Amino acid sequence: MTGLTFSREIGGAVAGGLTPIIALALVEWxxxxxxxxxxxxxxxxxxIGVPAVLFGPETRGRSLLAPTRxxxxxxxxxxxxxxxxxxxxxGGAAATAERAV
Length: 101
Known about the structure:
- The chain is mainly alpha-helical.
- 63% of the residues lie in helices and 0% in strands.
- The protein has helices at residues 3-29, 35-55, 69-76, 93-100.
- α1 (3-29) runs antiparallel to α2.
- This is Major facilitator superfamily (MFS) profile domain-containing protein.
- Keywords: Membrane, Transmembrane, Transmembrane helix.
- InterPro entries: MFS_trans_sf (IPR036259).
């Protein structure tokens, strides 16, 4: 068993074991209402999701199947950024709008 596998399994056991206990405690604390459990689930999703979106790498235009960094760089043109506006891109939204007029 690798360290990554061990960490994942321990994390799953802790989260899977504590979640029902936390949910039960929240329901008892709120007098039988399940709204606190829903808010707890929402909070957990926000705590995990917001940093993942903010700090995760952009994968637009990259080959997600490239097994090595060299193949990834070859497929993306050395991680060049995409144009920021439609005017820089030939045939972009601005060019399409001009053709429609």
